UniProtKB/TrEMBL annotation:
InterPro entries: MFS, MFS_trans_sf
Any coiled-coil regions, as ranges: none
GO molecular function per UniProt: acyltransferase activity; transmembrane transporter activity
Entry keyword Transmembrane: yes
Alphabetical UniProt keywords: Acyltransferase, Cell membrane, Membrane, Transferase, Transmembrane, Transmembrane helix, Transport
Matches recorded under PANTHER family: MACROLIDE-EFFLUX PROTEIN, MAJOR FACILITATOR SUPERFAMILY (MFS) PROFILE DOMAIN-CONTAINING PROTEIN
Membrane topology annotation: Multi-pass membrane protein
One Pfam family from the record: MFS_1
Any single GO CC term annotated in Swiss-Prot or TrEMBL for this entry: plasma membrane
Protein name stated in the entry: 2-acyl-glycerophospho-ethanolamine acyltransferase
Segments traversing the membrane: 49-71, 92-109, 115-138, 150-171, 177-194, 231-254, 266-289, 301-320, 340-364, 376-398, 404-427
Main location: membrane
Length: 435
């Protein structure tokens, strides 16, 4: 914990930490304000709300699948700090469009023909923005931090990301949509100003020509990255984790409205609990590992996560909807006898999930050459995003087929078993390499 406190005060870490924190905050404020407004003010049925939530997730994730290879090449071959500043400048324009879309939707002006297309365009553009920023926020850490600080730095970045998700999610649920439109634009400006203080991070190898063929470069990048079995297994395990996470996030809004008969503030509360839990798990696993990069706690953590998902499902099954169909606010929801067990199950899912995934990210930046870290993270993003898009489309298809949103929770629990198996293989590979 001392090293983490030391890093927070360090100029080689603090500007990057705040920049990525504001990035995650803005992503989630905009996306959740958009999705919650659509679910609670535009779409009436559970199927419509779930389908829209899944579509929005897929639109945001798609750029990671298409452009991560180019983003990784660019980050390893150019000054990472300069790329951060360019990306954050673009965010200002993107949020001007997105904020405009939120205002039009709030005023009821051209909701289907103008507001929603603008919102989807801005959401896709934010996905592009995060695709180019994502590899850098992890790849820059080994360049600015000492080897014994990398795990602590990764844990802080992960915890900070979820604190930002927490804050953005709270505001998305409680702010009126017109104020959310202003907030995303102001945050983009602040993020750019902070990014100007990130220390330079020049390339560590001679820059190579960029390959703009997204399919060829993506396949080549993944193939060249997974030669280390530990890195390959870490990427696969992270991918399944984020597939589980994306399915759960898609379900929260429709579940709160249609199963629990709760308001959008309660849907926001679910996301908040999830974010707090992952942040707690992220910091806790670093304390357990004492700075050592190891996956030994990952298999057990994700099995516990699956058990908590089953517990969450069971509580939802026994939930009694409000008799008159009126949506409960947060205070009335918390007065329900099953509210505390439900939130405890959700917190358990998130804490165990954070303990599972953080050491795996550290694998990606410590077991490859420093000149290849951005491309390694980019390869991870390609596989992750493909899995998450698949999860979003599966949730979309199940909702379209009329599968109840509560039943879809069991899909997440089943996927935890796959993640545990991958984590077990990673631990075996880790021990074999040590031997």
């Amino acid at each position: 914990m001392t090293s983490q406190t030391h890093l927070i005060r360090s100029r080689r870490f603090l500007p990057l930490f705040i920049t990525q924190l504001l990035n995650a905050f803005n992503d989630n404020l905009f996306k959740n304000a958009m999705v919650l407004f659509a679910i609670y003010s535009i779409y009436e049925t559970e199927e419509q709300g779930a389908a829209f939530s899944a579509l929005a997730s897929a639109v945001f994730i798609l750029p990671f699948f298409l452009l991560s290879a180019l983003a990784g090449q660019l980050a390893d071959g150019r000054d990472k700090a300069r790329i951060i500043r360019i990306v954050k400048a673009c965010e200002i324009a993107i949020m001007a469009v997105g904020g405009g879309g939120l205002l039009l939707a709030w005023m009821g002006v051209g909701v289907d023909l103008l507001a929603m297309p603008l919102l989807m365009l801005a959401l896709f553009a934010m996905g592009v923005h995060s695709t180019f920023f994502g590899p850098i926020k992890y790849a820059i850490l080994p360049q600015h931090l000492h080897p014994q600080e990398v795990l602590a730095g990764t844990g802080l970045v992960e915890a900070g990301t979820y604190i930002a998700i927490l804050t953005g999610t709270i505001l998305a649920g409680w702010l009126e949509v017109e104020w959310a439109a202003l907030a995303v634009f102001v945050t983009a400006i602040v993020g750019y100003l902070v990014s100007r203080h990130v220390p330079d991070a020049p390339p560590l190898a001679v820059p190579e020509p960029l390959d703009y063929n997204v399919w060829r470069s993506s396949i080549a990048l993944v193939r060249n990255t997974v030669h280390d079995r530990r890195v390959f297994l870490a990427i696969m395990a992270i991918s399944f984790f984020w597939t589980i996470g994306s399915v759960l996030f898609i379900q929260f809004g429709p579940l709160a409205k249609n199963v629990l008969t709760a308001s959008k503030e309660v849907a926001s509360l679910f996301l908040v609990i999830f974010s707090v839990g992952v942040a707690i798990g992220s910091v806790s696993v670093n304390a357990l590992l004492k700075g050592t990069v190891s996956a030994r706690y990952s298999p057990g953590s994700v099995i516990v996560m699956g058990l908590f998902v089953v517990g969450f499902f069971m509580v939802c099954r026994h939930w009694t909807p409000h008799p008159d169909g009126e949506l409960m606010n947060a205070a009335r929801f918390m007065a329900e006898p099953l509210a505390a067990p439900l939130l405890l199950m959700l917190l358990g899912i998130a804490i165990s999930g954070g303990m599972f995934v953080v050491p795996l990210y550290a694998f990606l930046t410590t077991f490859v050459d420093k000149s290849q870290t951005a491309r390694t993270v980019a390869a991870n993003n390609i596989v992750n995003s493909g899995a998450m898009v698949g999860g979003s489309l599966l949730a979309f298809g199940l909702s379209a087929a009329g599968v109840a949103i509560i039943t879809q929770l069991l899909l997440s629990a089943a996927m935890c078993l796959v993640s545990a198996w991958l984590g077990h293989l990673l631990v075996k590979a880790e021990r074999a390499a040590a031997a």
